[in-house]
Write a structure and sequence with these properties.
With about 375 residues, the protein is an alpha+beta fold. Helices cover about 40% and strands about 20% of the residues. It has two domains: about 80 residues; about 250 residues, Bira Bifunctional Protein, Domain 2 (BirA Bifunctional Protein, domain 2), CATH 3.30.930.10. Strands 1, 4, 5, 6, 7, 8, 9 and 10 form an eight-stranded mixed beta sheet that branches. Strands 2-3 form a two-stranded antiparallel ribbon. Bound molecules: 3,4-dihydroxyphenylalanine.
């Protein structure tokens, strides 16, 4: 075959190759080890110098033409494949966008925010204290000296003493209630402002007790309240609790019953019950618990701060008096949002969370920004 015919044949085979694989087969047939053009190149070795001069340029020219045609065809096939893929992959902008998973507030966070907001309206600041506490703040300064029976009632998680513990090092524990924040706040305020009080705080947070059943978990949440000022009396306590509970449960008919009780850190101490009435088969908070078919639900502990506790807080009990209260936050959430098993709060089951969780965007809370309430 002469070179012109060989060239025309090669170019038409290259043009006919429909994909990368077919093109590669053509390349091997022409330029591979046993390819027809390779064979032609090999014949040059046996040529006389005159013949090589006469035919050489045409043979080399053929190789270059074919190589260039192979490259051009390869590029054309690649861009055709890309175009076909792009055409098949068009984005339909009219389809709804895939949903982005959105975080939500745990009911406990929600309720803590609601409480902080309600108490902020009454001038209370939020105070905090450590969850790993020492027994002086958790017990002694709250008028529970070492052998006090109330200590045993708290089922405390104590930390084991380290082997090299100093004899006078404090016994550490997981705080059993938020009440030690009362002591820490009084001492802190006294250290910053000579004279100390007045002060109004709430202290929400985690507390720990060695206890577990449908209504008790080893970790749970409380909120502590403390007011210290001149001339504070039980009337202030009752008004504050009533105002708070009406705002929290969003009912004007909340009725409180104060029952004498005992806590080492308050004197006198009162247990606060809230009246409930029947709403169909369900008990609903609100109304006079003494009415027929109604009753009282024990809700929280409170009282006038014990003089000894005021003194442990670094304040003069002759000058200052105050009230305090402690409530279970989880319990408040269960009552307000009709949840019946406390343990579900801390299982971390995503289905439960999705069912009960609050959207930080829908509900006006501190987390969502106080200003979001129109
Ligand atoms: N600390 C108590 C408890 O965990 C609750 C309590 C009762 C707190 C009376 C108070 C209070 O501040 O005055 O059982």
């Amino acid at each position: 075959m002469d070179i012109a015919a060989l060239s025309a044949d090669a170019l038409s085979r290259i043009a006919a190759a429909g994909d990368g694989e077919a093109l590669e087969a053509v390349r091997v047939a022409l330029l591979g080890k046993a390819g027809s053009i390779s064979a032609l190149l090999k014949t040059m070795g046996a040529m006389s110098p005159e013949e090589r001069t006469a035919r050489g340029p045409a043979i080399h020219g053929l190789r270059e033409t074919v190589t260039a045609a192979l490259t051009a065809r390869k590029d054309a096939l690649a861009s055709a494949a890309l175009e076909a893929r792009l055409a098949g992959e068009t984005v339909d902008l009219t389809l709804p966008a895939p949903e982005t998973p959105r975080g939500s507030l745990h009911p406990v966070s929600q309720v803590m925010d609601e409480l902080a907001e309600i108490f902020a309206d009454m001038g209370f600041a939020v105070a905090t204290g450590p969850e790993i506490e020492d027994d002086w703040h958790n017990f002694t300064a709250l008028n529970m000296p070492e052998s006090h029976p109330a200590r045993a009632m708290h089922d405390t998680f104590y930390f084991e003493a380290a082997e090299d513990r100093q004899a006078d090092a404090p016994q550490m524990l997981l705080r059993t209630h938020t009440s030690p924040v009362q002591i820490r706040t009084m001492l802190d305020v006294v250290s910053r402002h000579p004279g100390g009080a007045p002060l109004r705080i709430i202290a929400p947070g985690r507390v720990y007790r060695s206890d577990s059943d449908a209504t008790h978990t080893p970790m749970f949440h409380q909120i502590e309240g403390l007011v210290i000022d001149r001339g504070i009396h039980l009337g202030h306590l009752k008004w504050t609790l009533e105002t708070f509970l009406k705002a929290f449960f969003k009912r004007d008919d909340i009725v409180l019953r104060l029952r004498p009780s005992y806590f080492p850190f308050t004197e006198p101490s009162v247990e606060v019950d809230v009246g409930w009435t029947l709403n169909g088969a369900r008990r609903a908070l609100g109304g006079d618990g003494d009415a027929p078919g109604c009753g009282w639900m024990e809700l929280l502990g409170s009282g006038m701060v014990n003089r000894k506790v005021i003194a442990f807080g670094g304040l003069d009990p002759g000058e200052w008096s105050g009230f305090a209260f402690g409530v279970g936050v989880d319990r408040l959430a269960m009552l307000k949002y009709a949840m019946d098993d406390l343990r579900a709060f801390f299982d971390g089951d995503a289905r439960w969370l999705a069912h009960y969780a609050f959207s930080p965007l829908d509900v006006p809370t501190l987390s969502a920004g106080v200003g979001s309430r129109a």
